[in-house]
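explain this.
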Amino acid sequence: MMTRRGQEPAAARPGPAVTATQAGGAVVEEFPYGLGPPDGILALRYPPTGGVVTDFPESRNDFVHQVYWSPDGVLAVGRGGTAAFAGPTSAVWVRQGVVAEVTALEVQTVVRLCVRRAPDELVRHEATVLAISPAAVEAVTRLVRPGTDERAGLAARAVLLGELAASPADPIGFGAAELGPAGAVARALTLDPADRTSLPGWAERLHVSPKTLQREFERVYGMSFSTWRTRTRLQASRAMLSRWSVTETAHRVGYATASSYVAAFTREYGEPPGRHAHRAVDAQAS
């Protein structure tokens, strides 16, 4: 059974898309299954509409565990000063009572699943990126499909949680949030890895000197602005490669040419992005 709530947001202003929080809300489709007992599930689907980016600001839910997944884009996950990315072949798990922020990188479909009870293999993680198997994808698709009855929805819930519990996990640790200029730049680049603003450009925006901003990056993150930006871009690109070509991924994370992206990726991970993408696809299918 599906219900629909929320108002259609105003059209996005020219330039970068606004978030749902900035727009005052987003359209969401609700699919509740067996919500009385603790073994129910609430599936929420946020369709790409109105030029608005779906976001879930930093918050803590003390009542339900949450799973986030996007079939057609990348999600950025923040825990204090730590960031991670999940593409269409991955889901994000956030345990009940854990503070986290989840934001789509563009206008895309986002699914949010809320459960009160989950397998111990999942509950032991505070927050983690999990590989999502084809069977889990099919289960999520069924949960957000109009016309799915409660029995089928609860069966899909069991399949989904079982598959996620058996999936390889990449835990997202918590890093102390940095409220200074380096933290502001880091958060902006996490949400838009393709931003090509230079260090002097960021310094001018933040009314500090380039030397001060560079020192702040080295103090907070233990590396230069350039190194931090490169690593964040490459990390985001790994989540994109399952959906986009190497060339498209390179442009989406701010590289002017595919060759410069391939060289940077290979230096960081010891293999070219094309090989990494093929391995990820093979692992998901196995």
Q: What stands out?
A: The chain is about 40% helix and 25% strand.
